[in-house]
Design goal:
Distance between the termini: 34 Å
Number of strands: 34
């Protein structure tokens, strides 16, 4: 790549170097993450998965699971628990596809395992488990998963991105089934080595209130029981914490489940134009009017629940770095578009009305006289979960074209650049054409602002 034509007009300037980059557009993903706590209020506790405290004269407690999930002496381990719809809604989640789950580890040693995660929806009235649930849908399996070391109190989220999204209906409780098999057979016997957080899922219980109605089951197996499977030999057992206070003389059995973080496709999940091929490149001179598969009309796709109401604002701005609105979707002349879902599931809303220099009245994206360069789709989407934003960059392309996407150095005010120090002149150049670009001629003009 070459750079040329550096011009200096007026004032004193140190020697400058021109640094150019061919850049790609940035991505803003519409998926959001939600930490789903359990009971929140007076008496609530969040504890590590291995909990054993003897703190006389205050409190003594222990947790019955004993961290078998990440204790490699157990060749197989299974846990199954309920995450309530109320907890998910309290975390801000709406109905829609769930695409990953994570645990928050406060410490970990390396552990190689085969891990499988399955999910199932049950009625909201089902709040405890006394036997294994069946009929679950597998969403994740990795026979070569490695839990990497995590420092003590690091609080790292370990995420398992689903191979198959699971669509939550917004009202049912969710059963999570996690199975772990020891993959290496190398045992460290370090029960304290890996710990993740658990959340208290019931209000403080009356003294001695042990009924067996808890939302968390687990089982485990040893190597001498044969080939490890997802139905370990020992269990199921219920998971709870027993506590006793020498101050209040109160015994309690407290129910816990793992603290989880879900990633959910809330709001827009796809658009045209978009940042992914083949919706990333549009051609200057063409009209996108739905006439064929290569020329769809502007649209957004989102997950909807039957009977639910949504509103959104869709616009296209550019060419970047300018943010002029060149296309504004309308409904009845208004830029706020209201939509009530007739059915549930993934839905594509295609715009039939628009304004702007690149818009036809019937919602077509008309690039007949468009300036080539990078543009951005901006959508503000409102649902019962609040407002989510969708920002996707795309390109209006000529066969050979580049655009300046930003000046990297010197930095603009209020950044203070040192006096009498050589500064690089660095610009970021983006290929916005249809053909590869390997050389760019750049003219840089530098002058006093006064």
């Amino acid at each position: 790549m070459k750079a040329s034509k550096l011009t200096h007009l007026g004032g004193r300037l140190a020697t400058l170097a021109v640094v150019l980059m061919i850049a790609c557009s940035a991505t803003l993903v519409a998926q959001q993450t939600y930490v789903v706590n359990g009971f929140v209020g007076a008496g609530q506790q969040t504890v590590p998965s291995y909990s054993y405290v003897y703190n006389y004269p205050n409190e003594y407690y222990y947790f019955s699971d004993w961290n078998y999930f990440s204790y490699d002496y157990m060749t197989s381990y299974r846990q199954q628990y309920i995450v309530t719809a109320a907890d998910m809604r309290a975390a801000g989640m709406c109905a829609g596809p769930i695409s990953s789950m994570a645990y928050r580890f406060v410490r970990a040693i390396r552990f190689d395992m085969d891990i499988t995660i399955s999910l199932k929806q049950v009625p909201a009235t089902t709040t405890f488990l006394n036997t294994w649930q069946t009929g679950l849908t597998q969403v994740y399996n990795n026979p070569a998963f490695t839990l990497n070391p995590i420092a003590l109190n690091d609080s790292t989220w370990v995420d398992w991105p689903f191979q198959t999204n699971f669509t939550w209906d917004g009202t049912s409780n969710l059963v999570v089934n996690l199975c772990r098999l020891n993959r290496t057979g190398n045992y460290t016997y370090n029960q304290l080595g890996s710990q993740y957080l658990l959340t208290h899922v019931r209000p403080p219980n009356p003294p001695f209130n042990y009924t067996g109605q808890y939302p968390y089951l687990f089982a485990y197996g040893y190597a001498f029981n044969g080939t490890p499977t997802c139905t370990p030999a020992y269990g199921p057992y219920i998971a709870y914490m027993y506590s006793y206070s020498w101050v209040t003389y109160i015994n309690e059995y407290k129910a816990f489940r793992p603290l989880v973080r879900f990633k959910s496709e809330t709001g827009v999940t796809q658009s045209f134009p978009d940042e992914v091929d083949p919706r990333r490149i549009t051609k200057a001179g063409d009209v996108y009017n739905g006439s064929d598969a290569l020329h769809p009309k502007p649209s957004i796709t989102f997950f909807q629940s039957a009977g639910a109401s949504y509103s959104f604002n869709y616009r296209i701005v550019g060419p970047l770095p300018a943010t002029n609105t060149v296309y504004q979707a309308l409904s009845g002349g208004s830029s706020t578009i209201n939509h009530t879902a007739a059915t549930g599931g993934s839905y594509t809303y295609t715009f039939g009305e628009a304004s702007g220099i690149y818009a036809s009245a019937n919602g077509d994206l008309n690039l007949a006289s468009a300036v080539g360069g990078a543009y951005r789709v901006e959508v503000d989407f409102t649902s019962s979960c609040g407002v989510s934003s969708w920002r996707k960059a795309f390109i209006v392309a000529f066969p050979n074209d580049v655009a300046l996407s930003g000046i990297r150095s010197p930095q603009p005010v209020p950044k203070k650049n040192p006096i009498n120090i050589n500064l690089p002149l660095a610009a970021q150049i983006q290929n916005v054409g249809l053909n590869p670009v390997t050389n760019v001629d750049v003219t840089a003009v530098v002058k006093n602002s006064s």
